[in-house]
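Example (one chain per record):
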Amino acid sequence: MNSRMLAPTRSGLHATMIRTAALAAAFLFATAAVWAQGTPAAGSSASNKLGVIDVRSAIVGTAEGKQASAELQSQFASRQTELENLNKQLNDLRQRLQASQGKLSPDEEGRLTQQGQRFTQQLERKQTEYQEDVNAAQGEVIDRIGRKLVDVLDRYARENGYVVILDSSAQNSPLLYKSTQIDVTQDIVRLYDQAYPVKAAATTPAQQKPAPKPAAQQPPPSAQPKPQQ
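Predicted structure:
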């Protein structure tokens, strides 16, 4: 079976988001946005420092990025399941044709072959639509986070005396080695989360008040003990 007809797995959505983030980040940070130049803020160290950031990891590592990734997985879960089911139906049909080769009538074999072709066309069309919608949703998230990340990075660089901060995740990056001592990725993620906190999603239903206890019931008159004479 052609590999391009395979439906994405649930774990593949997050991996796709990371790959897309790398491409988008390379575009967002290819300009002077990552070259934080200028006069350091008053009171800061003018040491002309060099820094490195993994923009891809920074975007998906923020609380907003993690929340967006989970929301995208939930948003497209039903369509992933539909693709997986279509793929299974097509695979089952192919196996049936192979197992029944020479045993089916020409009409039955032709009918099943046409059915397989319809499944293939339907699967390819839905996969294309799915991937286009996923890419569009991911692009919106990456653009939203990336723009705010640039502001956080620019402020951080100016306040801490950086003259250059390079993106190690960009395509064709000139970096061959980087020391963890000049990696500012986690600092930027921390500052981003402070500047743009996200609201925690409700994970447990609201606690309900316990129902009032029923009033103690008196035994019926017939069951009450008679007074002694």
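Caption: Confidence is low (pLDDT under 50) at residues 1-13, 19-40, 203-209.
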